[in-house]
Structures are given as C-alpha cells and as structure tokens.
Amino acid sequence: MADQKDTVVDRKTQTKPKLERPKLYKVILLNDDYTPREFVIMVLQSVFNIGPETGYRLMMTAHKMGSCVIVVCAKDIAETKSKQATDLAKEAGFPLMLSTEPEE
Ligand code: TYC
C-alpha cells in the first residue's frame, strides 16, 4: 500500500487520440499490347460500373499514355476491384493489369 503513493504517471508519454482520415488509393489501368480494346471497356463496365463512353475514354488514355487512374477509393475496395478486373482478364487469357497506389 505504501508503495502506491510513490507511483508516478508520466503524462508526457500519453498519446492524444488522433482521428486521421484513412488514406485513399488510386486504381490504375495499365496498357499492354494484347488485350482487346473492347475487352478493357467491358471490364471497366462490369467491375467499376463505368459506362461505354467514359470506358472508351479511360481505355484510350491508358492506351496512349501507358496508364490511367480509374477511381480513387478506400484501400480494400481498390485492391478488391483491381484483383477482380485482373482475374477476369486472366480467365479470358489476356494480360490486362490494374494496380493500386496510395494517393499523395
Ligand atoms: N493497347 C491495347 C490494344 O491496342 C488496348 C488496351 C488499352 C489494353 C488499354 C490495355 O489498359 C489497356 N489492343
């Protein structure tokens, strides 16, 4: 009991609860030489709910520039969707790749 009086709490080491925004992630469509343009547009439609005009524009941007940001969202959603899209392509025998990276 006598010992308890000697207990010192060092308040400097207590951390303030910080509410930080979860980091957002980009899903990036990567160009390749083999996946048909129509297939890319179909994947954008079925995985990301992107309509044909926007799908065409995004596909052509990746085709010309090498890559194109498709969507910015939470990490788990970005990773799931990029895997779904890559898996669809793999099943169809195309090398289409999508990657994710944290937004600045
Ligand atoms: N470059 C492909 C072709 O000419 C089409 C393509 C576009 C593939 C965009 C992937 O992310 C991509 N058939």
Automatic annotation (TrEMBL):
One example GO MF annotation: peptidase activity
Keywords: Hydrolase, Protease
Claim: Isomerase is one of the keywords in the record: no
Pfam families named among the record's database cross-references: ClpS
Example of a GO biological process term: protein catabolic process
Residue intervals passing through the bilayer: none
InterPro entries (alphabetical): ClpS, ClpS_core, Ribosomal_bL12_C/ClpS-like
Adaptor protein ClpS core domain sequence ranges: 21-98
Keyword Coiled coil appears in the UniProt entry: no
Top-rank taxon: Bacteria
Quaternary structure (record): Binds to the N-terminal domain of the chaperone ClpA.
Family to which the UniProt record says this protein belongs: Belongs to the ClpS family.
Known function: Involved in the modulation of the specificity of the ClpAP-mediated ATP-dependent protein degradation.
Classification via HAMAP family: ClpS
Protein name: ATP-dependent Clp protease adapter protein ClpS
